[in-house]
Specification:
Radius of gyration of chain A: 18 Å
Order of helices and strands of chain A: EEEEEHEHEHEHEHEHEEHH
Number of helices of chain A: 8
Distance between the termini of chain A: 47 Å
CATH class of the largest domain in chain A: Alpha Beta
Strand order of the largest sheet of chain A: 8-7-6-9-10-12-11
Shape of chain A: globular
CATH architecture of the largest domain in chain A: 3-Layer(aba) Sandwich
Largest interface: A-B, 50 and 49 residues
Number of strands of chain A: 12
Oligomer: homodimer
Structural class of chain A: alpha/beta
CATH topology of the largest domain in chain A: Rossmann fold
Strand content of chain A: 25-35%
Largest sheet of chain A: 7 strands, mixed
Number of domains of chain A: 2
Helix content of chain A: 25-40%
Chain lengths: 287, 287
């Protein structure tokens, strides 16, 4: 069976595997200064955002990614006030963060203004949080922008693309060090750290470098299933010198989140840190 | 970008999504009495078994599926003696089961002898357990075969294909009842119950029917990531009138499994039963 190019969008991953979605309409297609941006309407995955040929957001499964990027750290912090998101121009992470009434400011640093603009237009539910009065959007290089902060932030979320193109610097040690420096005492940073199944070496290197920067037992990976991403078994890494995501984990979900989340709760929190044996083995000897 | 049909195998799921793997060689392709069987050699996913156009086994990720089908129940049972596997002609489930020295007999009931023969030839590591002296292979309809047993089995594993073609009866209530009848007191049955994300209605119906047969709180779904299956977020359902997979869960892995598993351990066991909120909601009101 073949896929007709005018009907199917296909992401080919490293010339070896591919994920395709049949679309009913191409809603948007532009080349920005940084990347090619496309948005399609599809029946089963809803609207999908593609950057440089890679699935970034689908309305069907993006709740898993954004909830698992945001809520483990937010719930451990209990009452974070000042948050920075690097990348994440779709606004999905911000939309989760502004659910917490105690948050005072959220700065989204997305290098590409066309990503933000196109998502505001075509992915209104996912980007809804960007309209919150506590949110500021800046279009700068996240690796430069983060250097403006010193012991100031409660939470930094690195919602990067893969380590190619503009996303490369977001996987490098100088950036990790700048993030550590930006955090208040007791602060937390969470990084998306790719698939331990299909991007084994990127995952290993990221965790190793984060452990070098934050401390050998202070960078803790956790996992979730993101069906539209290559490998589907996806990782995030929770970094904090003072907070332990398991010892300080929530016993119950904060009441204002009841009924507002589709993936995350206090049990899913603990489960996410129970790493599959092969994932644990990939990073053993690194602590 | 397009996928050349002589280089890529593509599974199209319900005309809406597709997963493709580039292959170096087609090793096998035959139509059996029941289905079309194909085996390809691929670089990134290893050898892959395709039945009627659907990924069944890949050397890259099948350890997740087979370990998560087999070990949660085996570890709760502690010392199962008599096991039946319905479906699973690739032998992967049996290969996990024969790791337990206390097991006295394993009967694999696979309707299609050509699946067993082709997997023995082309997937030797996955099917290795079939050569164990305690294993018997019968080629019968599992829904009929299971009626031979009454309060006799410690464990039944239903390693079915999707509920189409020969696999349909394995999702029907009379089959579920026959399985319940086949189990000893204290016995366990585990069913693969499809993706709660992309096959929502099949998942819901299967859990509902299993709860009707085994008891409202005696059929407990759990999840794992299977990247090569549609939806990737996959479910199994643990059914037992006497055993509770969490209360009776292993505190430590049995010593003879140390270092022999790549996905499952006692923490992964508990984590698998922490259902994502939307999965719990899909089946709430059913207990």
């Amino acid at each position: 069976m073949s896929l007709i190019e005018s009907e199917w969008f296909t992401e080919i991953f490293e010339r070896n595997t591919a994920f395709s979605v049949r679309y009913s309409k191409k809603l948007y297609g532009q080349n920005s200064e940084f990347q090619k941006i496309e948005i399609f309407d599809t029946e089963v995955m809803g609207r999908v955002l593609i950057l440089d040929g890679c699935f970034m957001v689908t309305e069907k499964d993006t709740f898993i990614y954004h909830e698992m990027l945001v809520h483990p750290a937010m719930n451990v912090l209990k009452d974070p006030r000042k948050v920075v998101v690097i990348g994440g121009g779709d606004g999905g992470a911000v939309t989760e963060i502004v659910k917490y009434p105690g948050v005072e400011s959220v700065t989204l640093c997305e290098i590409d203004p066309m990503v933000v603009a196109s998502c505001k237009e075509y992915l209104p539910e996912i980007s809804a949080g960007l309209a919150d009065g506590r949110v500021t959007v800046v279009n700068e290089d996240g690796a430069v922008f983060i250097r403006n902060f010193e012991q100031e932030l409660d939470l930094v979320l690195v919602d990067s693309t893969d380590p190619v193109g503009p996303g490369t610097v977001l996987f490098e040690t100088p950036f990790f060090k700048a993030i550590r420096r930006s955090l208040k005492r007791g602060g937390v940073a969470v990084f998306q750290t790719e698939s331990p199944l299909l991007m084994e070496s990127v995952f290993r290197a990221a965790v190793k470098d984060l452990r070098t920067v934050f401390g050998s037992d202070k960078a803790r990976p956790y996992v979730a299933t993101i069906p539209s991403y290559p490998g589907a078994l996806w990782s995030f890494t929770f970094c904090s010198e003072e907070r332990n995501p398991l010892n300080d984990s929530p016993r119950t979900l904060v009441p204002f989140l009841e009924g507002r989340l589709r993936f995350y709760d206090e049990n899913v929190h603990r489960a996410a840190f129970a790493l599959p044996v092969f994932v644990r083995n990939l990073i053993s000897g690194q602590r």
